[in-house]
Automatic annotation (TrEMBL):
This is histidine kinase. The keyword Cell membrane applies. Keywords: ATP-binding, Cell membrane, Kinase, Membrane, Nucleotide-binding, Phosphoprotein, Transferase, Transmembrane, Transmembrane helix, Two-component regulatory system. It is a multi-pass membrane protein.
C-alpha cells in the first residue's frame, strides 16, 4: 500500500507533463497555421490588387485620349467659334452622340471657356448637359490650367457617378477656346468585383472611397477628414448628396476596417494609382483565426487521443477482424446473387427469343387462317370470270364465221378477266408470304388499294359497302408491303364483321399531317364497349363466340405497326361506330422534302 500510494503522485505528475507538452505543441501548431493562412491571404490580396489595377487602368486608358481627339474635329471648333449658330451646335451634338455610341463611352460634352456646356452627346435626353455651368468642377479648372484634367465625381445633373476626363481645346489666336469632357461609368467594375467576391475599393487624394465592391464603404473616408479637405470637396461638389461630414471613418483601428462587428475584423492592403488615387483590397481574417483554432483543437485532440492509443489498440484490432469477417460474408452473398441474376437474365433472354419466334409463327398462322376464311369468296370471284371468259371465247369462235368485227372486242374482254384473276392471285401471294426482308419505301395508296381488293369479296358477300378516300398525292412510308397490307386487311375484315349486313358501311381514308400519315378504318357499327376497349389488343382476347377467332388479329397488327415505327390508335363511341388509325412516320427524302408521287388514275 505505501508503495502504491507513492506511485500515484508520479503517475499524476507524468500525466500533467504529457498534457502540458501536448498543449504547448497544439498552441505552436495553431500559431504556424495562423501565419500560413495569413500569408495566403496577403498573397491573395496582392493578386487581387494586381488584377484590379490592370482592369481599372485598362478601362481608363480606353478613353484617355478621346477628349483630345474629339476636340480636334472641325465641327467642335465650329461650335466654339459660333456658339449662337444653331446649325453648328446641332452638328456638334450629333457628332458627339455618334462618337459616344461608337466608342461605348458614357457622356461626351463640350464646355466653352467659361465652363458652360454648349454641346453634348445626350443633347436630346431629359437630363441633357447642354446649358449647365460646370466651371466649379476640378476637371474644368485643371484642363484650363494644365491642358488635361481627370476626377471621379457624382454628376450634379444626373446624380450618377462617373470618371471625368477632360482636355483643353486651344485656339492658336485666342488661347483657351473650350474644354472637351468624357464621362466614363466605372460601376461595371464594381459589379464585377462584387460578383467575384472581392472586397476592392479606390480612394482619392483625400482618402475618400468613391469606388468599391462593398456598398457600405462607398463615399466614406478612411480617416477623419480635416476641415480644409471638407471645404474643398464641398466647393467642388465631387460627392454631392453623399454627406461626407457625417460619414464614419473606415479605419479607426489602423489597418482593420471598423465595420462588421466583433470577430469580423478585416485586413487591408493598398497600392498607389494615378492622380493621387489608391487601390485597396481587403479580406476578412476569420479564416486565419478559424485555421489557428481548428489546428490547435485538432492537435490537442490528437495528442489526447494518442495518450490513450495503447488502451484502444486491442479493441481496434478486434473491430478490424470483425469487419473483415463481415466483408467476406457480404462478398460471398454478392457473388451468389450475381450468379443468380446472370441465370435469370439468361433465362429471360431465352424466353424473349422464344416469344419472338412464337409471335412470328402466329403472324404467319393468322395469314393462313385469313386465306382460309377468304377461300369461299375467292372461289366465287374466280368462277365468275371463268364462266364469263368461257362464254366470251364461245361467242368469239362463233363470230369468226358470222361477225368477225366483234371478235376483237370479245377477246379484249377475256383478256381483262384474265388480268383480274392475275391481280387477285398476286394479292393472295403477297398476303401469304412470310416477309423477313428489311423495311423499304412503300406507297401507302397502293397498299390501301390492294387491301381493299382483298376485302371486297367478303364485303360483297354480306352486303357491306366499302369506301376509299385517298389524297391527291401518294404519301410514302418505310414499311413492309405485305405486312402493312395484312394489317389493313385485318382491320377491314374486323370492321365488315362489326357492321349490320346489308346496311353497313366501312371507309378506308388516308390523311396527312405534320410528318405523319394516318390510314383510318371507320365503320357505322355499334362500336366497342368501354370495358372491352382497353383489352382489345391483348393476344388471344376475342369477343367472338364459339371459337370463331383466335384473338390475334389486332395484337399482331399492333406489333407490326410498332415495327414500322408507328402506332395504332383505337377510338370508339358506343352506338356510333369505331375508328382504328394506323399512324406511320412520313418518309423524308435526302433533300428534306416529302417523298411523294402523283396518284395514277385508274
Amino acid at each position: 500500500m505505501p508503495r502504491r500510494a507513492a506511485l500515484l503522485p508520479r503517475l499524476r505528475s507524468a500525466w500533467r507533463l504529457r498534457f502540458v507538452l501536448v498543449t504547448l505543441g497544439a498552441l505552436l501548431c495553431g500559431v504556424l497555421a495562423w501565419q500560413l493562412v495569413m500569408a495566403e491571404l496577403r498573397q491573395g490580396l496582392e493578386q487581387a490588387l494586381l488584377v484590379s489595377h490592370r482592369a481599372l487602368q485598362t478601362e481608363i486608358d480606353r478613353f484617355r485620349y478621346l477628349p483630345r481627339v474629339a476636340g480636334e474635329d472641325a465641327r467642335i471648333r465650329a461650335a466654339l467659334d459660333a456658339p449662337g449658330n444653331a446649325a453648328a451646335i446641332d452638328a456638334a451634338n450629333r457628332y458627339l452622340q455618334k462618337i459616344a455610341t461608337q466608342t461605348g463611352s458614357g457622356r461626351l460634352y463640350l464646355l466653352n471657356d467659361a465652363g458652360v456646356t454648349i454641346a453634348s452627346s445626350n443633347w436630346n435626353e431629359p437630363d441633357s448637359y447642354v446649358g449647365h455651368d460646370y466651371s466649379f468642377r476640378p476637371y474644368f479648372t485643371d484642363a484650363r490650367a494644365t491642358g488635361n484634367g481627370a476626377v471621379y465625381a457624382i454628376g450634379v445633373t444626373t446624380g450618377e457617378p462617373g470618371y471625368f476626363i477632360s482636355a483643353r481645346v486651344d485656339d492658336p489666336g485666342l488661347g483657351v477656346h473650350g474644354v472637351m469632357v468624357v464621362k466614363i461609368d466605372l460601376r461595371p467594375l464594381e459589379q464585377a468585383w462584387a460578383e467575384t467576391g472581392q472586397r476592392i475599393a479606390v480612394t482619392d487624394r483625400d482618402d475618400v472611397v468613391f469606388l468599391s465592391s462593398v456598398a457600405e464603404w462607398r463615399y466614406r473616408p478612411l480617416m477623419p477628414l480635416p476641415e480644409d479637405a471638407l471645404a474643398r470637396l464641398e466647393a467642388s461638389r465631387l460627392y454631392a448628396r453623399a454627406a461626407l461630414e457625417a460619414a464614419d471613418p473606415l479605419l479607426p483601428k489602423g489597418s482593420e476596417l471598423g465595420i462588421g462587428g466583433a470577430g469580423r475584423a478585416t485586413t487591408l492592403r493598398g497600392t498607389p494609382f494615378e492622380t493621387g488615387w489608391r487601390l485597396l483590397a481587403a479580406t476578412p481574417v476569420w479564416p486565419a483565426r478559424a485555421a489557428a483554432l481548428a489546428t490547435t483543437a485538432l492537435v490537442l485532440l490528437a495528442g489526447l487521443l494518442g495518450l490513450g492509443l495503447a488502451d484502444m489498440r486491442r479493441h481496434r484490432q478486434r473491430l478490424i477482424a470483425l469487419r473483415l469477417r463481415q466483408t467476406e460474408v457480404m462478398e460471398r452473398k454478392v457473388r451468389q446473387r450475381t450468379a443468380e441474376l446472370a441465370r435469370e437474365i439468361e433465362a429471360r433472354r431465352q424466353v424473349e427469343d422464344d416469344l419472338r419466334a412464337t409471335q412470328a409463327t402466329l403472324v404467319q398462322s393468322e395469314k393462313m387462317a385469313a386465306l382460309g376464311r377468304m377461300s369461299a369468296a375467292i372461289v366465287h370471284e374466280v368462277s365468275q370470270p371463268l364462266a364469263a371468259m368461257e362464254a366470251t371465247l364461245t361467242a368469239a369462235e362463233f363470230g369468226l364465221s358470222h361477225a368477225p368485227e366483234k371478235t376483237a372486242a370479245r377477246l379484249q374482254s377475256a383478256r381483262g378477266l384474265i388480268r383480274r384473276m392475275q391481280r387477285m392471285t398476286k394479292h393472295l401471294k403477297n398476303f401469304s408470304r412470310r416477309e423477313a426482308a428489311p423495311l423499304s419505301p412503300v406507297a401507302v395508296t397502293d397498299v390501301a388499294r390492294s387491301a381493299l381488293a382483298l376485302a371486297q369479296p367478303r364485303a360483297d358477300a354480306v352486303g357491306v359497302q366499302l369506301h376509299f378516300d385517298a389524297p391527291g398525292t401518294v404519301p410514302m412510308v418505310r414499311a413492309g408491303h405485305a405486312r402493312l397490307e395484312q394489317v389493313l386487311v385485318n382491320l377491314l375484315h374486323n370492321a365488315i364483321e362489326a357492321v349490320e349486313p346489308g346496311h353497313g358501311e366501312v371507309t378506308l381514308s388516308i390523311e396527312r399531317s405534320a410528318g405523319e400519315v394516318t390510314l383510318l378504318v371507320s365503320d357505322n357499327g355499334p362500336g366497342i364497349a368501354p370495358d372491352v376497349l382497353p383489352r382489345i389488343t391483348e393476344p388471344f382476347f376475342s369477343t367472338k363466340l364459339g371459337g370463331e377467332k383466335l384473338g390475334l388479329g389486332l395484337a399482331i397488327s399492333f406489333e407490326v405497326v410498332q415495327q414500322f415505327g408507328g402506332r395504332l390508335d383505337i377510338r370508339s363511341t358506343r352506338g356510333e361506330g369505331a375508328e382504328i388509325a394506323v399512324i406511320l412516320p412520313l418518309l423524308i427524302d435526302d433533300d428534306g422534302g416529302n417523298e411523294e408521287t402523283q396518284e395514277a388514275a385508274e
